[in-house]
Amino acid sequence: MRQYELTVLIHPDLEMNLQPALDKAKKMIEEVGGKITKEANEGKKRLAYRIAKQDFAIYYYYELDLPDDKKQAKKLADGLDIADEFIRHLLVTVDENRIKLEAKRKARKSAEGEEEEAQEDQDKEV
Question: For the domain with range 2-94, which CATH number is right: 3.40.50.300, 3.30.70.60, 3.40.50.10940, 3.30.450.30?
């Protein structure tokens, strides 16, 4: 599996009933064998320039795992291009070095947290 980041711009008219568009995106991801690891609604934002005669869009962000076969990523991108709910999308692979760096940061933070807890325990004893 390969890690990807997907950002979709959803048509602003769907703001009141966003769930069908999100369900459609999830279905497309699952159809190509993908798995969503993280998702976030970034909210409605003003676009830097008009896209499809729209000045605003709802930004939705996904982190997902897709099969190593690049054809599946292409199939997902093509499906998002055709869907009317999505004004634009961006699908990019996550850099392996970034993944390693984030893992090191998490390990360092957890080690620092353990040291602070040990220090607090020592201070309580004294």
Answer: 3.30.70.60
